[in-house]
Every structure is written in structure tokens, then in C-alpha cells.
Amino acid sequence: MARRNIDRLQGEIEELFADLWQVPRFSGMRHGFRPPVDCFHTTDPHELTVVVELAGVDPETVRIAVEERSLRIAGERPRPRVEGQVYQQIEIEYGPFERVLQLTEDIDVAAASASYERGLLTITLPIAERPTRAQPVAILVRRIG
Q1: CA of 17: how far to CAs of 13, 68, 100, in Å?
Q2: Which of 65, 75, 95, 131 stands the most exposed, by the fewest C-beta atoms within 10 Å?
Q3: What's the rounded Cα separation, in Å, for the pair 88 and 52?
Q4: Measuring CA to CA, which residue among 46, 41, 62 is closest to residue 115?
Q5: 42-83 per-position pLDDT tens digit
Q6: Which pTM was predicted?
Q7: Distance CA 116, CA 118 (A)
């Protein structure tokens, strides 16, 4: 149990530093973006659900992998190009992204699934009854609608 708490704390510290050291978007030095993520557990069924806000991202280009006790979500939101465009204001973040979330429980990767609807990627990770072998597994995204 203490190891899980240390792993969770390490993940939270890494997320904090990633947020603190982000280059401000208006400086022109920042490449990519950090999509917001919600995670929640349910008991019936016993699973972890991860929701990632990915408006403007083609779900077929998103890569999701579970390895050991981490979930990796990566992809890119390309900036649309319009001939002769001159920006008056730039607030939307574009470019590559990667989020790595530390998992507190073992996942049944064979039963994991992902769906994409209206700009939200929802990843469902059933909790394993017993520990599984540490082997990277990719999860395919299914488009809804």
C-alpha cells in the first residue's frame, strides 16, 4: 500500500511541475498543448474512467497505451491553415500532446475500451481481479456518431 501512495504522489508532483514550467502560450515558444483530463472510479462495475477533452483531434490519430501502472494518451491537434490568414487573437492551443497518468490499481487491459464523441475521449479501464503481466497494450479508439 505504501508503494502505491508513493507512486501516486510521484505522479502528482510530475503533473505539478509540468504545469508550473509550461511556457506561456503568448511567448511563441510553446509547442503543443496539455488537454484537460477527468478521472473517476466506480464500484459497480469496478472500473476507472478517464475523460480527455480533445476537440479538433482526429480520434484515429490518438494513441492510447497501458503499461504497468500507467496510462499514456498521445496525439496531435493540427492548426488549420487558411491562405492569407492574419490572426487578431490566438488562444486555442495546437500541436502534439502527451499525457501520462499513474494508475493506482491493476487494469484488465483485455476488457479496456475507448470511445470518442463530441470532442471527448472516454477511456474505460476495468480493474483487474488479480495483477496482470507487465506488458504494454494499445487501446483502439472507437468513434461514436
Answers
A1: 6, 23, 13
A2: 131
A3: 29
A4: 62
A5: 999 999 999 999 999 999 999 999 887 899 999 999 988 889
A6: 0.72
A7: 7
Could you give the residue ranges of the DSSP H alpha helices within 36-75?
none
Nearest to 37 by CA among 64, 2, 67: 64
The rounded distance, in Å, linking the Cα atoms of 144 and 38 is 19
Contact indicator for 25, 31 with CB cutoff of 8 Å: no
Architecture of domain 2-143: Sandwich (2.60)
Cell of 126: 476495468
Phi and psi (nearest 5°) for 27? -75, -15
For cell 470532442, what's the residue? 119
- φ, ψ for residue 117, nearest 5 deg: -145, 130
Task: For cell 506561456, name the residue.
Answer: 24
The radius of gyration of the chain from alpha carbons, rounded to an integer in Å, stands at 17
Q: Cell digits for 8?
A: 501516486
Report the C-alpha gap between 31 and 93 in whole angstroms: 8
CA distance 29 to 35: 18
Taking the C-alpha atoms of residue 47 and residue 68, their distance in angstroms, rounded to an integer, is 16
